[in-house]
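Input (Glutathione S-transferase):
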Amino acid sequence: MGGEKKGLVLLDFWVSPFAQRCRIALAEKGLVYESLEQELLGDKSDLLLGSNPVHKKVPVLLHDGRAVCESLVILEYIEDAFPGAAPQLLPADPYARAQARFWADYVDKRVYSCGTRLWKLKGEGRAAARAEMLETLRTLDAELGDKAFFGGEALGFVDVTLIPLTSWFYSYEKQGGFSVEEECPRLAEWARRCGERESVAKVLTAPEEVHDFIGLLKKHYGLE
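Output:
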């Protein structure tokens, strides 16, 4: 399916927050991999289509040619396949692991899809997306509380899931007319703290570049 190449290969896209999750996790664990940039708005590669025939999208992690799809599944796979690679992003305690999975799933289902509606829709649709986004960010701000990271004192599964989406906050703020700093100050401070980590700083796309990319998407979908 993924060819004969050995080792780790990430089918990637420069601005994808889902692919960036994988890059951060791999960097945190010190795992060597090759990134293969994919075309997503034009003709997709045979490698991508063959590796992820169901969803036909990035990220895909090829491990010795075998494909693992979907970013949260990839994060868990990295944990399982390389148990000796520290740090462990998922806690050892079963209850804490379940909580981490719950909040990662919450991020996965709410933030990006809601943000997409913010820039795609107008009028009542955008107003509804704005209300949902604020509810979501406030919920995450409350869950973070006064902790350094979502799991406590160490960067973990939920942090890696959410961090790449912070580059999109600038665009969400402009489309929704709100400020993450004002609405969710603890979340904003957490984003700054995470952004200082080498694994994160090397991966995150500048907010202005994300905003330009959203403009490209609008043209692609005929919204401008």
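The chain has a mean pLDDT of 96.
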